[in-house]
Amino acid sequence: MTARAQRVADQIQREIAVLIQLEVNDPRVNMVSVTGVDVSNDLAHAKIYVTVMNSLTGDSEQDKETLTDPGKLDQLEIEENLKALTKASGYLRTLLAKRLRLRAVPKLHFYYDSSVERGHRLSSLIDDALEADRQQHADNAASNE
Fold this sequence. Notes:
Blueprint: H1 3-23, E1 32-39, E2 45-52, H2 61-68, H3 72-87, H4 89-99, E3 107-112, H5 115-144
Parallel strand pairs: 2-3
Antiparallel strand pairs: 1-2
């Protein structure tokens, strides 16, 4: 990506995040976070990566399972959010054109970004491994006494 395309992508990311929060009134769009934007070098298309935060509601054991293995309900929620954002992409593009000083505003394409989910899963695995290691050291120290 060229330097100009990167600057445009950063600006689009900031503006789209605000527009989704304030302007999209579709009830299917809940707690969507824009995690990244890739713009083609000719500035004709923008891939917008989003994460849906609804399934990450609490610290219960059931929610931890949701983080490690998203169920069908979570997948349906993600798909509904993406459908709603895709449907609103023309409207968002129009609003974006009013906020950006570009000759042509890129077409918006929305994609789910699972990197946050993978990060939570990896963090959970690391925490589990550290806890198992602590437990093993405690058991070894108790058996040596």
